[in-house]
């Protein structure tokens, strides 16, 4: 016969309530004993009836188990308080960082003093210098990579020219020609012919 689902509410009949209490008390004590034996667990169970009668089970010394529980609960409480304290400090630091970030972005500057504005200006200046330094470093690294690539290409070009019987143009001579052409172009650009004329524009056109 299948048992029906027991409704979880207080049993009104006193006799039925006492019978159910006795059965379930024995059952829970049996489960506690089995748990302690099968799993080698330290189990302590304290139970008071409706009339205040004490029932207890302990797999070891009850007093020692209770003392261990109280000590562990005390340690857990301290740990919780410490975590709450650390969380409060972290929240305060986050708020300060957010305020600093907003000020660096130009917000909430009305409440800033001259000293605070000067400090913000110094921070921005340092940030710009760091950005420029990093940018310059990346440019130098990229130029160095291009030089290495150029060297490899020149060596490959020389190897292929030698292989197929072509006479490659001397690299130093080529560089010298480029330098001469560059100087010539600069000299031509620097030669500017100027005329000094005093008078009305119409007179100049007529002449």
TrEMBL record:
SUPFAM superfamilies: SRF-like. Residues 1-61 form the MADS-box domain. Keywords: Coiled coil, DNA-binding, Nucleus, Transcription, Transcription regulation. It is found in: Nucleus. SMART domains: MADS (SM00432). GO terms for biological process: positive regulation of transcription by RNA polymerase II; regulation of transcription by RNA polymerase II. Pfam families: K-box, SRF-TF. One of its GO terms (cellular component) is nucleus. InterPro entries: MADS-box/MEF2_TF, MEF2-like_N, TF_Kbox, TF_MADSbox, TF_MADSbox_sf. The keyword Disulfide bond does not apply. Its main location: nucleus. Residues 114-163 form a coiled coil. The keyword Transport does not apply. GO terms for molecular function: DNA-binding transcription factor activity, RNA polymerase II-specific; protein dimerization activity; RNA polymerase II cis-regulatory region sequence-specific DNA binding. Residues 80-170 form the K-box domain. PANTHER family: SERUM RESPONSE FACTOR HOMOLOG (PTHR48019). Probable transcription factor. This is Uncharacterized protein. The lineage of its organism: Eukaryota, Viridiplantae, Streptophyta, Embryophyta, Tracheophyta.
């Amino acid at each position: 016969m299948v048992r029906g689902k027991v409704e979880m509410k207080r049993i009104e009949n006193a006799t039925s309530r006492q019978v159910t209490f006795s059965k379930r008390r024995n059952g829970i004590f049996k489960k506690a004993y089995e748990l302690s034996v099968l799993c080698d667990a330290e189990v302590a169970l304290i139970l008071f009836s409706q009339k205040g009668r004490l029932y207890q089970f302990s797999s070891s010394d009850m007093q020692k188990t209770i003392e261990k529980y109280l000590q562990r609960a005390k340690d857990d409480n301290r740990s919780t308080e410490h975590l709450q304290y650390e969380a409060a400090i972290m929240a305060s630091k986050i708020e300060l960082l957010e305020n600093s970030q907003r000020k660096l972005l130009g917000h909430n500057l009305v409440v800033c003093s001259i000293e605070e504005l000067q400090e913000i200006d110094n921070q921005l200046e340092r940030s710009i210098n760091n950005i420029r330094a990093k940018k310059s470093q990346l440019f130098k690294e990229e130029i160095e990579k291009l030089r290495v690539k150029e060297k490899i290409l020149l060596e490959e070009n020389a190897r292929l020219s030698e292989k197929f019987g072509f006479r490659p143009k001397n690299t130093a001579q080529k560089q010298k020609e480029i330098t001469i052409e560059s100087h010539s172009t600069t000299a031509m650009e620097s030669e500017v012919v100027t005329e000094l004329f005093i008078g009305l524009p119409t007179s100049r056109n007529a002449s």
